Fold this sequence. Notes:
This protein is an alpha+beta fold and 250 residues long.
Amino acid sequence: MKTEELAKLFTRRNIRRLAALFLIKTALKVLLFLFFFNSSWELFSADLYTCSFGQGKWKPEEWRMVKSWRWDYAGEWVQKSDFIENKVPGDATPKELFSKRAGETYTSMVLDKKFRGNLTIACDMSFIDRMAPGIMIAAEPVKDEKGRWEYRDHFEVIFYDKGVNVWHHYFVDGKQVWKKKAFLLEDFKPEKVYKLSVNISFTPKGPVLTMKVNDGAPFGYMEEALPKEYYLGIVGCEGVNRFYDLKISK
């Protein structure tokens, strides 16, 4: 075989090999893209904390009870076999629990450690009447005059029978004020367990909060006031609220 023919043969072989390698690499990229696209909510996820709130399945010492500045009541959890629920006055009507006696229902706690950066917190929860369990994102709490932890600047992602509200609580002239920053309008049923998820992302354009219920469509907004370091937890108020499982992932 002549030298020119050999050169052409090797060239054709190299082209076929290069083409095959290109196709293999492209196929791998497509498979990886599809895998991560389908898992986009927990992209590169790693569990930072998981627990079940069933009897004997969680450690209260890992949590910090924190009260609201608005009321003197410090809150209390009632342990059940598969969940915890906020203690409420037994002589109050359901309507009173989310109106004039709401201050006697507020129970909240955060994990006793700071988080920072991008992550997702998800919790399975339910309400008995109309409202209002939620997820807490808080700056550093302070001690009140009785030595109890008390919230200052914080965000509540609240779940209730007509949707989800995101509230920013902050202080002006020493008094707590609050503003609704985002909302979802959707009907949810009492005594049914739902998974509320909140994704925290610090993007080049600013901090973003993105929420969803179960596998529903996410909704979110830009939140410039989101602290770079924060505490994560749960809150129950304005009715009987139940919490089952919680996971924080990165």
